[in-house]
Structure formats: C-alpha cells, structure tokens
Write a structure and sequence with these properties.
With 103 residues, the protein is mostly helical. The chain contains five helices and two strands, in the order ααααββα. Strands 1-2 form a two-stranded antiparallel ribbon. The chain is elongated and about 50 Å long. 15% of the residues are buried. This is Holliday junction DNA helicase RuvB. Keywords: ATP-binding, Helicase, Hydrolase, Nucleotide-binding. Residues 24-94 form the RuvB winged helix C-terminal domain.
Length: 103
Amino acid sequence: MVKAHGRIDKDIAMEALQMLQVDEIGLDSLDHKLLSTLIEKFGGGPVGLGTLAISVGEETITLEDVYEPYLLQVGFIQRTPRGRIATSRAYQHLGLAEEGKLF
C-alpha cells in the first residue's frame, strides 16, 4: 500500500520508523534485545561478544560490525578486556534501574 501519494513528510517518516520498530534515537529491535540481554541476563556485564551473540541468536561478526559501533558511539556499551558492559545511559534508555551501584 502506498501512502501519502509518494510524498514523505515527518509524520510518514515517523510512521515508517515505528513500523520498522526503530526508536527515537535509531535503535531497532535487535539493539534493544542486545541491551536488555546484556543487562537482564548478564547483570550488565562484562560478557564476551561470542556469548552475547549466542544469547541473541546472531553471528559474532554481525554484532561486532553492524550493531556494536553505534551502541559504542551513543555510549550504551563499553568494551573492556573482560567483555562488553552496559552503561548507565543504556539502563536509562531502557527504563531499567541499575542494581548494586552505590555511586
């Protein structure tokens, strides 16, 4: 079905992004799945990329080359020698409380 007779305005663009499950800062459903898995299943990390990839059903190379760069850029994850960790910004974006942090 063609909408807006071939014209794209803000409302049409927002509707398309919503249909694709892309949020207001550009995260899609797999980005959300990665972050929520990292936080809920692995306590925010650190967790190895291979383990994280298996947990979300993706290839390691896909996570590293496609998803991770943007999550690093917006400050939602950090790479450490022990694995990936979720940042405070990731918790805030998902509306989750950081447990066990005193400061």
